[in-house]
Amino acid sequence: MPDLEPDTVSALEAPEFAPAQFVRWFRDVAPYVHAFRGKTFVVAFGGELVQAGALNALVQDLSLLSSLGIRLVLVHGSRPQVNEQLRLKGFTQQFDRGLAPTDAAALECAKEAAGEIRLDIEAAFSQGLPNTPMSHAHIRVISGNFVTARPTGVLEGVDYKHTGQVRKIDVDALKFAIEKGSSVVLLSPLGFSPTGDAFNLAMEDLATSVAVALRAEKLIFLSSGQGVLNEDGTVDTELARVDADGLLAAGSLDEETGAYLQYASLAVKRGVARAHLVPFALDGSVLLEIFTHDGVGTMVVEDTLDDLRPATIDDVGAILSLIEPLEADGTLVPRPRSVVERDVENFTVLEHDAVIYGCAALHTFADEQMAEMACLIVHPEWQGSGEGEILLRHMESRARATGAKRLFVLTTRTSHWFMKRGFVQGGITDLPREKQNHYNRSRNSLVFIKKL
Ligand SMILES: CC(C)(COP(=O)(O)OP(=O)(O)OC[C@H]1O[C@@H](n2cnc3c(N)ncnc32)[C@H](O)[C@@H]1OP(=O)(O)O)[C@@H](O)C(=O)NCCC(=O)NCCS
Predict the structure, then answer these.
(1) 261 alpha carbon to ligand 1 midpoint, in Å?
(2) Quick check: is 14 in a domain?
(3) How remote is the CA of residue 336 from the centroid of ligand 1, in Å?
(4) Distance CA 183, CA 17 (A)
(5) Are both 256 and 268 inside the same structural domain?
(6) Alpha carbon of 126 to those of 120, 139, 186: distances in Å?
(7) d(CA 179, CA 410)
(8) Can you say whether the dihedral through the CA atoms of 242, 248, 254, 255 is positive or negative?
(9) 334 pairs with which residues across the strands?
(10) Share of the chain above pLDDT 90, in %
(11) What is the pLDDT of residues 315-362, one digit of tens each?
(12) Which of 71, 10, 392, 52 minimizes the C-alpha distance to 218?
């Protein structure tokens, strides 16, 4: 490893360094690296992160993402810094999270604060000392007039003056910068109107508008909180948008988490694939959120989990009509109505607007701590949007709940779909004994097994 700096080498040679673990970790990360190359992430953080001294560590992690081919747009806030400027200049106004008017003096403070933070961020991206994660990074940061704003105007008799809202994002220019220019775009919470005026914008509104306009893969809010917490105090790592909206309506979240969650939900509703609330106090939190299975914060998804439910006897007809075409072409083993009726409790169905468009069945083999997933089907019209994967994940957690340690499938035509999702080929002798006895040798199905 001739190019490694001495310090890095000594870290690798430290007694606690475990090569096998390192290689395994690196390989585990590979699918995420492949999946996210060329995708756009919008990363948003308040001035609180800068105040807390977490900027350098974040920039190092963002540089790594950029080097892995992830396209980044950063949106920073500046509320504490604007308040500090106001205080220093002897003004009594202080901004909190709510909507407030921005007068001419406050706008000047906002411009100064934005300028200062922007320079700090640009400086952080320009680091390149040897023995640091920024060595050889060469990240180009671009800012500009990408955001057109409009005045909030007069609301209930109050003139909000230079407080504004996002009117338009120059998507072409942004895409050009992140795609062709391979640059990181940095946006301050200020927008400009065709009259040449500047407006003070809410960072959350700006980040969400940009993520929606770019149809970003991810919108990530770095928060001083941990994310959304469960009743037992642990972080709720995945939240369907409808559940996020339920929590917001219940009004039990703290102010910051509530504000970020509201925009996360909006972003997902408007087409951003996933929105995250990630704690900035945890070193490396963005990397952990992106490259580990459960992450460390809360991820909001527009999920069809709501469409999943256990099957009832009334669903037998619909299940049979999903199965029949696949029996005819040999993809699935024939199942008479009586068998589906008998086993209907093993089935989970996907239902939307009273239409059953997918199903899967789970058979457990308690002695061997194994479970079989059978009859995984998504109606052809709904295929290719991740519904199969949602069903699989659900069946995996059902299997886990029964105490199963391994999930297996028998397949003739879908082996690659399962392999891509972590199944490895096994043999007939790997199956539970009862299943081996009933194995249909003329069908010659392949056995695929996944550790749970
Ligand atoms: C397998 C099945 C459930 C997947 O459902 P889905 O909702 O389309 O799944 P996802 O959207 O999560 O995945 C779609 C991806 O799987 C791929 N795929 C679909 N069928 C596949 C197959 N037989 N082999 C390999 N890949 C397959 C698609 O090309 C798509 O790939 P992409 O993401 O690279 O574009 C669905 O194709 C199906 O019902 N097939 C017929 C029934 C069947 O074979 N069931 C398994 C019985 S063991």
Answers:
(1) 32
(2) no
(3) 24
(4) 35
(5) yes
(6) 10, 7, 14
(7) 43
(8) positive
(9) none
(10) 70
(11) 999 999 999 999 988 889 889 999 999 999 999 999 876 789 999 999
(12) 71
Which of ligand 1's atoms lies nearest the C-alpha of 409? 48
**Where is the domain boundary, 303, 322, 341?**
303
Q: Which atom of ligand 1 is nearest to the CA of 374?
A: 48
Kindly state whether residues 199 and 284 are assigned to the same domain: yes
Do 244 and 312 fall into the same domain? no
Q: Which residues of 305-342 are buried (b: 16+ CB within 10 A; e: fewer)?
A: eebbeebeeebbebbeebbeebeeeeebeebeeeebee
What is the distance in A from the centroid of ligand 1 to the CA of 11? 44
Q: Which atom of ligand 1 is nearest to the CA of 389?
A: 12
Structure confidence by residue, pLDDT tens digits, 2-57: 344 444 444 455 557 788 888 988 888 887 888 899 999 999 999 999 999 999 99
CATH number, domain with residue 244: 3.40.1160.10
Instruction: In whole angstroms, give the CA distance from residue 47 to residue 180.
Output: 29
**How far is ligand 1, taken at its centre, from the CA of residue 332, in Å?**
14
Pocket of ligand 1 (CB under 6 A): 326, 331-332, 376-378, 383-389, 409, 411, 413-414, 416-417
- The DSSP output letter for 407 is E
Give the residue, by CA position, lying nearest to ligand 1 atom 10: 386
Residue 416 Cα: closest atom of ligand 1? 25
Average pLDDT of 95-104? Answer: 88
Q: For residue 322, give its domain range.
A: 306-451
Pairing state of beta strands 218-223 and 40-45? parallel
Phi, psi dihedrals of residue 275, rounded to the nearest 5° = -125, 140
CATH code at position 372: 3.40.630.30
| Residue range 65-97, pLDDT digits in tens | 999 999 999 999 999 999 999 999 999 888 988
How far away, in angstroms, is 388 Cα from ligand 1 center?
A: 7
Q: Is the dihedral of CA 265, 263, 148, 172 positive or negative?
A: negative
Q: Whose CA is nearest to atom 9 of ligand 1?
A: 388
Put simply, whether the predicted model's pTM sits higher than 0.70 gets the answer no
Q: Are residues 241 and 380 in the same domain?
A: no
- Dist. CA 384 → ligand 1 center (Å): 7
Query: Is residue 4 a part of any domain in this protein?
Result: no
Fill in the DSSP letter of residue 357.
E
Final residue before a domain boundary, out of 273, 303, 333: 303
Separation of CA 311 and ligand 1 centre (Å): 22
Instruction: Output Rg (C-alpha) for the chain, integer angstroms.
Output: 26
pLDDT of residue 15: 58
Q: Which two tokens stand for residue 250?
A: 């219940």
Q: What is the pLDDT of residues 154-163, one digit of tens each?
A: 998 989 999 9
| Residue owning tokens 């940009």 | 210
